[in-house]
């Protein structure tokens, strides 16, 4: 995948994440975007970080001492974890937010 397409797909993924987080109570989960990094801070101080990895054309997610690396899958038009299975970026973020903040994000 070329740089331009990767950036377009990553930007769209980040906009979707921000749009979903905008629906949440900021006292339970707040977020900040700085360039290619979104940092979510949960009530109690736990954090979740989403960032782009241009050299590998991936989006990385880290939370609760775990990390996932998502690659874009053209066949399904989704960001899927590169370890296999069917772990999708937005679903994993929704799961983390529900677990750490008790907030259900829109799909």
Structure characterization notes:
The chain is α+β, with helices and mostly antiparallel strands and 107 residues long. The protein has helices at 3-21, 89-101, and strands at residues 29-34, 37-42, 47-53, 58-63, 66-73, 78-81. Strand 5 (66-73) and strand 6 form a beta hairpin. The model has no long low-confidence stretch (mean pLDDT 95). The protein has a single domain (3-101), classed as Metal Transport, Frataxin, Chain A (2-Layer Sandwich). Strands 1-2-3-4-5-6 form a six-stranded antiparallel sheet, covered by helices on one side. It contains two helices and six strands.
Overview features:
Metal Transport, Frataxin, Chain A
Task: Give the helices and strands, then pairings.
Elements: H1 3-21, E1 29-34, E2 37-42, E3 47-53, E4 58-63, E5 66-73, E6 78-81, H2 89-101
Antiparallel strand pairs: 1-2, 2-3, 3-4, 4-5, 5-6
Instruction: Quote the distance from N terminus to C terminus.
Output: 26 Å
The number of strands is 6
- CATH fold assignment: Metal Transport, Frataxin, Chain A
Largest sheet: 6 strands, antiparallel
Task: Identify the CATH architecture.
Answer: 2-Layer Sandwich
Beta-strand residue percentage = 25-35%
- Global structural class: alpha+beta
Radius of gyration: 13 Å
Q: Give the H and E element order.
A: HEEEEEEH
Query: Quick one: CATH class?
Result: Alpha Beta
Low-confidence stretches: none
Major sheet strand order: 1-2-3-4-5-6
Average pLDDT confidence is 95
Shape: globular
Write the CATH homologous superfamily. Frataxin/CyaY
Q: In percent, how helical is the residue content?
A: 25-40%
The number of distinct helices, counting runs of at least 4 residues, comes to: 2
Into how many domains do the coordinates divide?
1
């Amino acid at each position: 995948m070329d740089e331009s397409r990767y950036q377009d797909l990553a930007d769209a993924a980040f906009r979707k994440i921000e749009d979903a987080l905008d629906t949440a109570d900021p006292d339970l989960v707040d977020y900040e975007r700085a360039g290619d990094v979104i940092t979510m801070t949960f009530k109690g101080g736990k954090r979740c970080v989403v960032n782009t990895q241009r050299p590998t054309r991936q989006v990385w997610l880290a939370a609760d001492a775990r990390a996932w690396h998502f690659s874009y899958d053209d066949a399904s038009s989704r960001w899927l974890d590169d370890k296999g299975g069917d772990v999708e970026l937005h679903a994993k973020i929704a799961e983390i937010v529900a677990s750490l903040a008790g907030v259900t994000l829109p799909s």
